[in-house]
Specification:
The complex is a heterodimer of chains A (276) and B (471).
Chain A lengths: L7 H7 L3 H8 L1 E12 L2 E12 L3 E5 L6 H7 L10 E9 L2 E2 L7 H7 E4 L10 H11 L5 H15 L3 H4 L12 H13 L5 E5 L7 H14 L4 E5 L3 H7 L2 E6 L2 E7 H6 L4 H7 L5
Parallel strand pairs in A: 3-8, 3-9, 6-7, 7-8
Antiparallel strand pairs in A: 1-2, 1-4, 4-5, 9-10
Chain B lengths: L1 H4 L4 H30 L8 H38 L2 H4 L3 H15 L9 H37 L8 H41 L2 H6 L3 E2 L5 E2 L2 H32 L2 H16 L2 H29 L15 H26 L2 H9 L4 H30 L2 H6 L17 H9 L8 H34 L2
Antiparallel strand pairs in B: 1-2
Helix pairs in contact in B: 2-3, 2-6, 3-6, 3-7, 5-6, 7-17, 9-12, 9-14, 10-12, 11-12, 12-14, 13-14, 14-17, 16-17
The chains are: A alpha/beta (276), B mainly alpha (471).
Chain lengths: 276, 471
């Protein structure tokens, strides 16, 4: 069901040399038989898939299909939900991150996350970005921190808009700016993977377009997994797409293939709008 | 004849009369509306029931006002009329004696006409019964008349086009408004009487002496410097908050962030039971358990300090009642005020903020310290302020365990007195209502009211601000 490696076009896009190619050859995250239970109710059934580095993987499917729940396995966010249980193996750099030995706190510094609703902390713009580097002890001194903040904001395409008001509260920004602030906050801790849970669902079309451009830009450096309800968005920003239905992974493949030539009937029905 | 009427049970009579007016008015309105709708082909705007309610409303409202006026005014009016008829000898009596004489008259009259050896008293009670009898019969007649007039007036309105429903709705609204107004009016009344009596007090004792004087001896020496009372109140409330603020806050953090749903379901109500314990129970707990404990610890420290040569004599007063005992127990009492409200505000911090912090790799305690508490801080401050105003106004615990001596001392093992304790002391037992001693209680009450009002207002403002932020 799964094709190995991204589409050829990706190679040209990323173009950062030899070790890049290697990262592309091997999956960044390899999930084997992942199931999730909320108390006795099973929400995700035996999902196995590979997520590639320096590429955007979109998880699509109707509401309640388990795609967000699956996404939250990748940074162990389900640990924070009472009664949630995750089984199966999730290998990241050869390490099973679903093992009880792995400290979720350290894992989450490697796997950043952006949520559906922009959720800046009720702190200044600067402190929002500085939060992660500070708690993880990643910086020495103020200058270093200033540099990290600027770099993160630049990468999130927000620097020019906020550089003169870094001390203002993050909540004073517009919705789209807040979401880019959250992305900047996530990349400030230099993660390897960024998870995005419907990052544009609370934004207007213009703000959405900016976030999508940003995602495309970030793909050159990070492994990105995005959950989206919008099939157009999946088609626009992702290189690989996984279709979930009723807690099962129905089909996964290159985005072009999924959207133009799905192998499973259910995928086709969903993409053409016959259900969902 | 009038004397017999004087013994009429007015409460029952009024209730029965009003019920009769309502049911009669309702039937009259309803039947008339129904008859109209049967005879005329046009459509009625309001259903017959509403016409019934409308007529009943017009019957009831004036009757109710008259009945209320009677209940409030009848007794003073009867007394006034009686006093005018009394022989001149009575008018030379001091006012208080005359009042207590009249009290006796109305108390005896309540059981029927008095016939005893005291001929004057017998005559006076008879006359009093006659007067109240005529008042009663007049009132009943007026109520009946006003009800009939009201019903007739309303009945003439019944017609297909008449919007009875709207009228009934606005009548109901007015009634509900009046109920709300009663609560507010009562508060205003209490505050007004506090102000009035305080002004009388301050005409005899200068405000500055009261607010800044350091000697309080209202019972014997007429010294009214309230600073020791303010100090005692403040000291005990401070001790209470030293207990309640950390314990309540940490309990709230545990409940909202760490406890599982099941634990929370048991622990939270149990904590709130603390708020339901009668304060007198806390009071004797403080007096019988905590105060002796505080005393023996203070004595032990004294002895130890002398033993090791750090002190020559006792350092702590080690009194049988103490500020510390009262403060500790009061602290326990206000824990639920802090924990319950703080728990609510911590829970009101959006889950998305917790998710954001966790997803950044923050630990649970980092999330709580750096994200949740700062976001919930205004609400937590408000809960602390409310607890402070509760502690300042608390009476029973301090009456039992804090002591009566007004003084300024930072020794927690000594006895202190508070505003509330002194108010109780001033107003229990034999009191005259215009001596500065009694009036000083009103001045103290006013201070207490203003201080707690300020705390509550600030707390409310803070909570409101906080709410605006997350909606």
């Amino acid at each position: 069901m799964d094709t190995v490696g991204p589409a050829k076009a990706d190679l040209a896009l990323t173009g950062e040399g030899a070790d890049n190619t290697q990262a592309l050859t091997y999956p960044r995250i390899d999930c084997k038989n992942v199931s999730v239970y909320y108390d006795d109710k099973q929400a995700v059934f035996d999902v196995s898939l590979a997520i590639h580095d320096r590429a955007v993987t979109a998880l699509i499917g109707p509401s309640g299909c388990g795609k967000s729940t699956f996404l939250r396995c990748l940074n162990r966010m389900n640990d924070t939900i009472e009664g949630a249980k995750v089984t199966g193996d999730i290998f990241m750099e050869g390490e099973n991150i679903n093992s009880p030995d792995v400290d979720p706190v350290l894992l989450r510094s490697r796997v950043g996350m952006v949520f559906q609703k922009p959720n800046p902390f009720p702190k200044s713009i600067y402190d929002n970005i500085a939060y992660g580097p500070r708690i993880h002890g990643m910086v020495d001194g103020r200058d270093d921190l200033d540099a990290v903040v600027e770099k993160s904001l630049r990468r999130a395409g927000l620097w020019d808009e906020v550089k003169d008001r870094l001390t203002q509260p993050g909540t004073s920004l517009s919705g789209g700016q807040q979401q880019r602030l959250c992305i900047a906050r996530a990349i400030a801790v230099r993660p390897e993977v960024i998870l995005m849970d419907e990052p544009c669902s609370a934004l207007d079309p213009i703000a959405t377009a900016r976030i999508e451009e940003l995602i495309d830009e970030l793909r050159k450096r990070y492994c990105i997994v995005i959950v989206t309800h919008s099939m157009q968005q999946a088609a626009r920003v992702s290189q690989r797409t996984a279709f979930f239905h009723l807690g099962n992974l129905v089909e996964m493949g290159d985005t072009d293939q999924i959207f133009t030539n799905p192998r499973v009937r259910r995928t086709e029905d969903y993409i053409t709008g016959r259900f969902g | 004849m009038l004397q017999q009427l004087g013994q009429l049970p007015m409460g029952w009579l009024l209730t029965a009369l009003l019920l009769f007016v309502v049911s009669a008015g309702f039937s009259i309105g309803r039947i008339r509306a129904e008859r109209y709708s049967l005879s005329s082909s046009g459509k009625f705007h309001s259903r017959p029931n509403y016409h019934g309610y409308y007529v009943a409303m017009w019957g009831l409202a004036p009757a109710l006002i008259l009945a209320l006026a009677y209940l409030l005014l009848a007794e003073p009016l009867a007394r006034d009329l009686l006093t005018r008829e009394l022989p001149a000898a009575f008018h030379r009596l001091p006012k208080a004696e005359l009042v207590s004489y009249l009290d006796a008259v109305s108390a005896v009259s309540a059981h029927g006409a008095y016939d005893g050896s005291d001929r004057v008293f017998t005559a006076v009670t008879h006359r009093y019964l006659e007067l109240s009898g005529s008042l009663k019969i007049t009132t009943l007649a007026m109520i009946l008349l006003s009800a009939v007039l009201g019903v007739m007036f309303a009945r003439s309105h019944v017609s297909p086009d008449f919007r009875a429903r709207q009228r009934v709705e606005s009548g109901a609204e007015l009634f509900l408004f009046l109920c709300a107004a009663i609560a507010i009016a009562t508060t205003v009344g209490i505050v007004a009487s506090l102000f009035y009596e305080s002004i009388r007090f301050f005409s005899q004792v200068p405000v500055t002496d009261f607010l800044f004087g350091t000697r309080w001896n209202a019972q014997t020496n007429a010294e009214f410097g309230a600073v020791p009372l303010f100090f005692g109140t403040f000291m005990i409330a401070l001790i209470a908050m030293f207990v309640a603020a950390p314990v309540g806050l940490f309990a709230a953090i545990y409940l909202s962030e760490y406890a599982s749903g099941k634990t929370r379901a048991y622990v939270k109500p149990l904590l709130e039971v603390l708020a339901g314990i009668p304060t007198v129970v806390y009071g004797f707990f403080a007096l019988l358990v905590v105060a002796p404990g505080v005393r023996s610890i203070a004595l032990w420290i004294n002895a130890t300090l002398i033993d090791v040569g750090l002190a020559n004599g006792p350092v702590f007063a080690a009194q049988p009642t103490s500020a510390l005992a009262a403060g500790l127990v009061m602290g326990i009492m206000v824990i639920p005020f802090v924990s319950s409200l703080s728990d609510d505000v911590i829970n009101a911090v959006p889950q998305t903020l917790r998710d954001a912090a966790f997803a950044m790799g923050a630990t649970k305690s980092e999330t709580i310290k750096q994200v949740i508490l700062p976001a919930a801080l205004p609400g937590i401050v408000a809960s602390l302020l409310l607890a402070v105003s509760r502690a300042i106004g608390e009476t029973m615990i301090v009456v039992m365990a804090a002591g009566q001596r007004a003084r300024i001392s930072f020794d927690p093992s000594t006895d202190l007195t508070t505003i509330t304790v002194q108010i109780v002391a001033l107003l229990t037992g034999e009191t005259e209502f215009d001596s500065p001693k009694t009036l000083s209680a009103f001045a103290l009450g006013l201070v207490l009211f203003l201080v707690t009002l300020c705390f509550n207002l600030i707390a409310l403002r803070v909570v409101q601000r906080y709410r605006e932020k997350y909606e």
